[in-house]
Amino acid sequence: MKTIPVIIVGGGPVGMTLALALAQQGVRSVLFNNREGTTTHPRLDVINPRTLEIFRRLGISDAVRAAGNPLNQHQAVHVARSYAGEPVWKFDDETMLMGSTLRSREIIKDHGRDGSYPLEPMHRISQMRLEPVLKAAVDAHPLCEILFGWEVHDIEEQAGCVTVHAENVKSGEQRTVIGQYLAGCDGPESITRRRLGVEYLGLRDLVGEIFTIHLRSKALQNKFVDGIPPWHVWSINPHWRAIFVNPNGGEDYVVHKGVPPAEGQDLHALVQEFIQDPDIDQEILLSSVWKPQFIVAESYGRGRIWIVGDAGHQYMPTGGMGLNTGLSEAYNLAWKLVAMVKGWGGDALLESYGIERQPVAVAARDHVRLCAAAVLGMMHGENEGPHVREPIEERAPRIERLYNAWGAEFGYCYANDRDGNSPIIDAGNDPLPFYDHVEYRPTTRAGARLPSLLREDGEAVFDLLDREGFTLLDLSAKGGDTASLQAAAKQRGVPMKLLRLAEPYARDVYAADYVLVRPDEFVAWRGNALPDDPLQLIDRVRGARHV
C-alpha cells in the first residue's frame, strides 16, 4: 500500500487550509471529512488580518473577499436598545480598519513604510461562504485528495507511519490509508486528540448555554443607510440581552442570546422584541444551543500525530479568536511537515509546533476571557434608574478589544518567560519584546512575525518571501557577502532565497542588517553580521538537535 505524506482528519477551514499550504509547497495529502458537504450554518463571521495574510500567501485572498462582504461596506458596531434604533455607542474607527476594505487598504498603504499595520485588513465572511472557496481550491489542486463523507474511526501509530481506518458514511465502504504524518483538524470531539490521550487545560461551561438563531430578512436591511446593517448590534434592552450579527452585510443574521426561550415560545416573536417593527419579515432557518468554552489542550501532539484548530482549543467567540487561531496553527505546522517529508527538517522541528503554538492558544484564551467579561459587563449592567453605577457610554468602549486586538492576532512572539525560546529560533541576547493583547508594536526579534512593509515601488515584502523555504533579508547598505550562510543552507538541503532591500526605512523597521525569515513569515534570526558558524544557525532553525 502506497504511503501518503500527510493524512488530515477533518475538512473544515483549518483542515482544508493545511492541505492547501502543503500542496503549495509540493507535498501531497489526503483529507477525510465526516460531513458530505460544506457547512450550511454561518458560524464564523470574520477573518482577521493575519488570516488574510495567510490566504494571500496561498493565493486565495481575492476569492475569499469576493465570497464575503462587498469591498465598499463598513464594519460598524452599535450598542442600542433596539436593532435599528439610535445607537447609544458605536465603534467605526477607520484607523483601526473598521471602515470598508477599500478604505482600509488606503490606510495600510499610507502606513506601508513603518510596519505598524498588517498587510491585509480583516474581512467579514461567514463560514458557510468561506468553506466553498477553500473546497474549490483544494479540489483543483492535484496534490490534494479530498474525501468528504468519510468517517475516521481508528488511528494507529506504528514505527515510521500512521494508519487511518475510515468508513464511507453512506455506503459503509471501508478504507485504510497509511501516512508518514497525521494532523487532526477534527474539532472539539477530536478522535485524534482522544487517540493521543490529551486532556484540556482550563474550565468548561463558565457562562452557561448560549441560544443561537440563524434568520434571513431582506426588509431588515432597508432600515439602514444604503441598505448596509451594522456588523454587530449589542442589545442593552433590559428585556432582551443578546447580540445581533450580520456576517455578510446582506440578508443573513445570527442572534446569540444568553437566555434560551421558554418551551414553545415563538422564535419570530422573540426576535421581534428587539427588532421592534411588526412589518419586518423574517425567516427562521435554524436554532440551536451551545456551551461556550475557555479551554486549551495540554499538549498539541507528539511524534507523527498532531492536533490543530478546535481539536486543541475551544473559545467563546467574543474576539473571533477560534478559527483564526486554528488557521495560524495550520500554517505553522504546514512548513514543518513539508520539511520533514522532504528530508531537511531536524528531529526537533515538529516538536516546535506545540512549543510555539500552545502558549499562543493560552494567550488567546486569556484575551477571549477579557472580551467576554467586557461584553457581560456592558450587556448586563444596570443602564437606567437609580442603580446605575457606571453609565453605558463608559462601559461600552471596553468591547473595542473584540474588534481591535492586533497584539493577540499577530503581535505575539514564540518565546516567553515560562517556556523559554522555541527550539528553532535563535534570539541571542535579545530581550523579550513588548506584548499586549490589544496593542501591536512591530519587532523583528526572533520568534516574532516579520512586520509588513511596502517597497518604494509599492510591492509588498511579504509577496517576495520564499513560499517553500527561508528568506535571508539583506538590509546592509552596500550588500553584504551572504555566501557562507547560503552555502550552509545548501549543504543541509534547506531552501533559502536572498532578498536585498535597499530602502532606508526598511533597515530602520527591521532593526538589523540581516534578518532570516521562516516560510511562515516569522523571524528565525537577526543580526548585524552573519554568524561565525553558519551551519550551526542553519541546524538550529531547521530543528536539528544533533548533527
Structural write-up:
The protein is an alpha+beta fold and 547 residues long. The chain has a domain at 411-541: Glutaredoxin, CATH 3.40.30. 28% of the residues lie in helices and 22% in strands. It has helices at 13-24, 49-57, 61-67, 101-110, 127-140, 191-196, 267-275, 322-342, 349-380, 392-395, 406-410, 483-492, 504-510, 534-541; strands at residues 3-9, 29-33, 77-80, 89-91, 144-148, 150-158, 161-168, 174-184, 200-204, 210-216, 232-235, 242-245, 252-257, 283-290, 293-297, 301-302, 305-307, 313-315, 415-416, 420-421, 470-474, 496-500, 514-517, 523-527. Strands 1, 2, 5, 6, 7, 8, 16 and 17 form an 8-stranded mixed sheet that branches. It has a 7-stranded mixed sheet with strand order 4-3-11-12-13-10-14, covered by helices on one side. Strands 22-21-23-24 form a 4-stranded mixed sheet, with helices on one face. Strand 23 and strand 24 form a beta hairpin. The relative contact order is 0.13.
Structural class: alpha+beta
CATH classification class of the domain at 411-541: Alpha Beta
Uncertain parts: none
Largest sheet: 8 strands, mixed
Any idea what the radius of gyration is? 24 Å
What helical percentage do the residues reach?
25-40%
For the secondary structure, the number of strands is 24
Average pLDDT confidence is 92
- For the record, give the distance between the C-alpha atoms at the N and C termini, rounded to a whole number: 32 Å
- What's the CATH architecture name of the domain at 411-541? 3-Layer(aba) Sandwich
How many alpha or pi helices?
14
What is the percentage of strand-forming residues?
15-25%
CATH T-level topology of the domain at 411-541: Glutaredoxin
Taken from the alpha-carbon principal axes, the silhouette is globular
